[in-house]
Amino acid sequence: MEKRIFRHSVRVPYAHVDQMGFVYYANYFVYFEMARAELLREAGMPYTDMEKRGVMLPVVTANCEYKKPAHFDDLLNIETRCTAINGTRLRIEYVITRGDNVIVTGYTEHICMSSEGKVLRPVPELKKLIHGTDI
Domain spanning 6-131 has what CATH number? Predict the structure, then answer.
């Protein structure tokens, strides 16, 4: 079964570029987070609702591979997909493009955790992130 793809767009603000006019490298992790929040919202479980239920998704691994620079006022499109839920861990992958050009690829891995810091099994609704249904 094909993995569910979520899409989000970001217009690069001037504050996100460095002296060379490129998006500062750490800002791509901010874009990942923005897209991840939209992914959860589109799947019907906004992060704020998960937090109210006592479920947190802290990042335990973050990876970003830079292919081309992005600049002020570029419209970046972010494709996001949850590619795995294994035990208490889930992996979310990102592809950021400008038009037909791939700018950045990356992923984050998360642990399901209670607000008290206890590791949890993922809530069943997280399966919607992969296929769009409660499989």
Answer: 3.10.129.10
d(CA 31, CA 56): 19
Strand runs (DSSP E) across 1-135, as ranges? 6-11, 55-56, 59-66, 75-86, 89-98, 101-111, 113-114
The Cα–Cα gap between 124 and 80 comes to 20
Kindly list the strands in the beta sheet with 6-11, ordered across the sheet, starting from the edge strand earlier in the chain.
Answer: 6-11, 75-86, 89-98, 101-111, 59-66
pTM of this prediction? 0.90
| Annotation says 18 is catalytic | yes
* Contact (CB, 8 A) for 17 and 71: yes
**For 29-39, what is each residue's pLDDT tens digit?**
999 999 999 99
Q: Which of 18, 73, 74, 134 is catalytic?
A: 18
What's the chain's Rg over C-alpha atoms?
A: 15
Per-residue tokens: 131:
């296929």
